[in-house]
Specification:
In chain A, 39% of the residues lie in helices and 3% in strands. With 253 residues, chain A is mostly helical. Chain A has a domain of 133 residues. With 576 residues, chain B is of the alpha/beta class. Chain B has a single domain, classed as FAD/NAD(P)-binding domain, CATH 3.50.50.60. The chains are: A mainly alpha (253), B alpha/beta (576).
């Protein structure tokens, strides 16, 4: 695997990240522009994601503030203009309030609601111990440092909660909940050039990655994470490399 | 507007199964005081076929289904997150050294069961799969042969029907009644990579997806939402292939009916099933025979939860093997990034495969083998793959997802052998009905690990050969079967070769849980073929099933007159 040259990276990315209404390589592309061609049930489901988010019922105001700060690092949206940021927290709050399950729980994990309550508290206590301040106030770099220690399964500083609840499972729980919300939003589909719903019209250009008449061509540009962030990939995406992961977490086939 | 009025909202009082097919006849309703002939627990892949066959043969049939009776126009969406309700989302506990992810990974909840959200690959098992102990000294032999099941494969391939190549070269070579599908870009990647390595492939199937219209079902429109329930009605599920015919012949499909326990009569025979409705109210349905077809987790769970005097370890469990020998297939997902665009969300995820590595090869250091198949995760699933495969999060997640359209994913589908310690038990925790939930334990063994290692290395080579510059992989599992296996000896199996429990003569099990081994073929077609064969057996036995404990073991005569409309004598000229 070819590791990324981080010195070059940091030098080149000293500018603040450019804000766009629609990040990604598909400018002007809009899945919602096609909604007249979707069936009614699908249209309602997708439209509901653009409606004002529901008010919080599971998290306390303090927990919500803390979790929002965590979400802002787990799936950052600083490159999106404020009115085009995808609300993630309210959807997770709704899932936990309704106790909607995903069909299973690992035997070494507490129930999802409890996992969130103790996990969030632990992250804040870790911030207090390491940085003498609340997680919400320590800034993106320190927040990344702390979260990366959870990602790497080496919580720094250690906390008793991670003896009771495997840190990699809590990490997966939080991040999966976040990507469930972000990548179900039509603005995220526009960002990645995903075609979106296609019934009853269907797709007709199946080969060679060609766009449908209503899709647009990719216009790639050099994309850089903000200077000092710790969550970018640590390899060149265009280079030859291999990577392996044990333990899958959810599945389809 | 074009296309079958599908832009309009569903009309009241019309039950739509796809844009054209509708249930027009009112469904027969049995009173609880009535004793029906067959009570089927689970209206899924096997239950749908059983209900259709048995009602066509004139039996009084009720199928209990824990989930809803889908109206596909009203209930289903072309949306990944919006399809959450298709899965079994109730609590299960998972553990062991290699815990299985459940939920979206396995059985469905609702009429059609898992066939609602399967990718619909429909390869057959190979003849060798039925004799792996004899041939390779691993696992166990089936108490039946491939040739006993073959006529049912042929029959179901027409009823579903299956689209695929005219010549499928592996196992028992065969053709398919509907032509192969055009390739999407991931199929192209699989074929290109394999061809460069000298690995033989088939493309455009075999899949249970229509490549041409069929009766009141339109052909595929290549929108890629197979795993989210096919609103088009092109992908087969028993909801649209067999259940309508069952209802037309007097079967009742009772939705939102969660089986709690099987009740035995004074004579020791199965007498009734106690179940809960949507409001949690208890009901009892009596029947002259009971068939459990509830999936490899819920089937053993129901048998274990039905423990009673004389059956303290659970029903049909004198062997102690109920819940044991649970299997999942290795389902490693390998993703390759290409310089060119792929756009893998188009076309069915399932559409090209190779079974070149299916059989045991003495040159390798493990028994049995694997298949290579296309997999095409939609954005949310792909993001989760990238969490595991490269530890993506934060800006890295955003960045790799911006390259979603450059990735192609292929899957290993590897045979994991049946092991006694892979099992379903009851946890102490209870569900919303007060029923103890299932606890699933899963461990990989030496042969499994070697097979997986070889399989993922091979698929990585295929992606590199196809031109991928970046190749990453995630280990995962798919397709649970086993946990109530068939066998000749009541000492180490739960049912006989027709699915009849060794212990109770009018209690049957018919779903993937009776499979003693699994091969590296997706199990859906095999489950439906086994159900059609069991139905022929039950029909041939007639009243004997209801009144006698005699156990006939001769193969039944295959009945060609029980197929749903539009499917008889289609395709393969070898079929009678």
């Amino acid at each position: 695997m070819k590791k990324r040259d981080t010195t070059r990276q940091n030098a080149a990315s000293s500018d603040p990240i450019k804000r766009r209404a629609q990040p990604g390589y598909y400018p002007e592309y809009s899945t919602m522009a096609q909604q007249d061609y979707w069936d009614e049930a699908t249209r309602k489901t997708v439209q509901s994601r653009l409606a004002p988010p529901p008010s919080l019922r599971f998290f306390s105001p303090d927990e919500a503030k803390l979790f929002q700060a965590i979400i802002d690092r787990l799936l950052p949206q600083d490159d999106r203009t404020p009115e085009r940021r995808i609300p993630i927290l309210p959807e997770i709050d709704k899932r936990l309030f309704n106790n909607t399950l995903n069909g299973f729980r690992f035997e070494d994990m507490p129930p999802d609601r409890e996992a969130y309550r103790i996990g969030l508290k632990a992250i804040d206590e870790m911030a207090h111990e390491r940085f003498r301040a609340a997680f919400t106030t320590i800034g993106p770099y320190a927040q990344d440092l702390l979260l990366k220690s959870l990602h790497d399964e080496k919580p720094d500083p250690p906390h008793w909660v991670w003896k009771r609840m495997p840190v990699h499972r809590f990490w997966a729980l939080m991040l999966q909940d976040c990507v469930d919300v972000y990548y179900s939003h039509p603005w995220a589909w526009d960002e990645i050039g995903y075609g979106g719903p296609a019934y009853p019209r269907g797709y007709m250009r199946l080969e060679n990655g060609l766009p449908e008449p209503w899709e647009v061509d990719e216009k790639p540009y050099l994309w850089r994470a903000p200077a000092g962030s710790l969550s970018d990939l640590d390899f060149e995406i265009e280079a030859n490399f291999e990577q392996d992961a044990e333990h899958g977490s959810r599945g389809i086939h | 507007m074009p296309l079958f009025g599908a832009f309009d909202p569903p009309k009241n009082g019309v039950h739509s199964l796809g844009p054209m097919q509708q249930i027009k006849t009112p469904m027969r309703r049995y009173r609880e005081s009535e004793i029906v002939d067959y009570l089927i627990v689970g209206a899924g892949s096997a239950g749908g076929v059983l209900a259709q066959r048995l009602s066509r043969a004139g039996f009084r049939v009720v199928a209990l289904e824990a989930g809803p009776f889908w109206d596909t126009e009203r209930d289903w969406v072309s949306d990944e997150k919006g399809s959450h309700e298709l899965y079994w989302n109730d609590l299960r506990i998972t553990g062991g050294k290699n815990p299985l992810a459940l939920g979206a990974n396995n059985c469905g909840k609702g009429v059609g069961g898992g066939s609602v959200h399967w990718a619909a690959f429909t390869p057959r098992l190979h003849p060798s799969d039925f004799r792996v102990h004899t041939e390779d000294g691993v696992g166990v032999d089936w108490p039946m042969s491939y040739w006993d099941l073959k006529p049912y494969y042929e029959l179901l391939e027409r009823e579903i029907p299956v689209a695929g190549p005219a010549w499928f070269p592996w196992g028992d070579p065969h053709g398919h009644p509907y032509g192969p599908h055009p390739l999407g870009a991931i199929g192209d990647v699989l074929v290109r990579g394999c061809t460069r390595l000298g690995i033989r492939t088939v493309a455009g199937g075999p899949v249970a997806i229509l490549s041409a219209s069929h009766g009141d079902r339109p052909h595929c429109i290549y929108r890629g939402f197979c795993l989210q329930g096919c609103k088009v009605g092109a992908k087969a599920s028993t909801l649209i292939t067999h259940v309508p015919d069952a209802i037309a012949h007097g079967a009742e499909i009772r939705e939102y009916s969660m089986a709690a326990r099987i009740i035995l009569g004074k004579d020791g025979r199965a007498e009734a099933v106690l179940y809960f409705d949507r409001e949690g109210k208890e009901h009892l349905q009596r029947a002259r025979a009971i068939i459990v077809a509830a999936y490899s987790i819920e089937t053993p769970r129901l048998l274990l939860n039905s423990a009673c005097r004389g059956h303290e370890r659970g029903l049909a469990n004198s062997s102690g093997k109920v819940g044991h020998y649970l299997m999942a297939q290795a389902g490693n997902v390998v993703a390759g990034r290409f310089d060119e665009l792929i756009r893998m969300y188009k076309a069915p995820p399932a559409h090209a495969l190779s079974e070149q590595f299916y059989e045991t090869d003495p040159k390798r250091n493990f028994a049995r083998g694997f298949a290579i198949q296309t997999v095409a995760p939609l954005p949310i699933s792909f993001a989760k793959h990238m969490m595991s495969a490269v530890g993506a999060w934060g800006w890295g997640m955003r960045r790799i997802m911006m390259d979603y359209n450059h990735f192609a994913t292929l899957g290993v589908l590897g045979e994991i052998l049946p092991w006694d310690d892979n099992r379903v038990e009851l946890a102490d925790e209870k569900d919303q009905f007060g029923l103890r939930v299932a606890k699933v334990t899963f461990n990989l063994h030496d042969n499994d690990k070697k097979l997986i290692e070889f399989g993922k290395r091979t698929v990585k080579d295929v992606l590199h050969a196809a031109g991928a510059k970046v190749v990453v992989q995630e280990s995962r599992y798919a397709h649970l079967v086993g946990a109530a296996r068939m066998g000749q000896s009541p000492a180490d199996s739960v049912v006989d070769k027709f699915g009849r429990t060794h212990d109770i003569a009018n209690l049957f099990i018919c779903d993937g849980s009776i499979m003693p081994t699994q091969g590296s073929a997706n199990p859906g077609l095999t489950i439906q073929a086994l159900a059609a064969r069991t139905a022929d057996y039950l029909i041939a036995q007639g009243e004997t099933i209801f009144s006698s404990n005699r156990r006939a073991m001769e193969e039944p005569r295959i009945r060609y007159n029980l197929s749903p409309p539009f499917t008889r004598f289609k395709g393969n000229p070898r079929l009678a």
